[in-house]
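This entry is listed as follows:

___
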Amino acid sequence: MTQLLKTAALTVDFNLERRALEARGALALMVQPILKSINQRLNEEKPALIREKDIVATTWLPPIPSGPFKRLLLNEAKMAMGRPVPQTVSIEVTRSCGCNCDHCLVKKDGEGELSKEEIFRVIDQALEMGACIITFTEGDPLLRDDIFELIRHVDPEKAVVNLFTPGLELTMLKAEQLRDAGLYNLLIGVYSADSEYHDQLRGLPGAHSKAIEAIEVALKAGLMVTMTTHIKSGQVDRIPELYKLATDMGVQELSIWEGLPQSPEEKLTQIEREKILTLYRKINSTPGGPRIFASTYFEGQMLGCMAGRRWLHVGVDGNVRACPYLRGGYGSVMESSLGEIWKAVRDSGEFKGFVCSCPAQETLGSPQ
């Protein structure tokens, strides 16, 4: 039995052998819903990774046990008391990218990007607020010379660090530097097992082969890797092919996100969402192979929409949104603190209650 958290009102233990979280104390009832959900996932689904001293239930959450997971539990208690915390803070760190995706907004809109010192300040404020997951994204963070400094600036006892990349710039040296800087998880976008389709979407010949090579390099360097993709209407049947590719590559998780439609025809139907959920349950209850993550479940049935409830997104120009997919802004980190902007998000009244579908799906937008 490992003690994850101990306060005057709440103690949470983790039984590694039974893979179960147990709470006691005055606030135990407050965290029971999230503990029940996590325990159910740990018992019914294969984890992304089992290590000597911890379990990675999914690459989208901190390992159990760990300092960041302890903070996640405290945040859930605050959430239950009506004091939501932005547990995940994603930060767009550059407009630069070797791809030429039609759906990309970062390269098309605005100009400029946050400096290292400005991102340091955002990280500090996010950690002070209770964030336990920091994600660096857009366009390709590996094109920032200071990306390793940004990763090292995140206190590993407070938060894990994820990083998105299309996989064009990863060398063995960079992979080792990411590992040594303390990167928790590397997310590499692969839109299809069909290289021609992936290259067309990326607007770059050879993009698919570079992404596959990046996965191989990252795994060889000892990094945890998630292959990530977006699925729109008519593309659900591609998931088994992507899963086979993920299995052959040996990644820890295949992440399926609902892509934002650019036309009504691209909106996922309820039948297609049910197909995703069926695949999610089947794959995660089958031993062997990587785990599958599906936003359809995680931000649908399990936690609901996290935008403005558990998630805050900092744009490349410093403007802050409730999540990467909703375009409305609530302030700039160049003018206000992240805490002040979070208060504006919460005071807007737009992010109350449990919402089991993505609000951005109701409007015609573009995938990230």
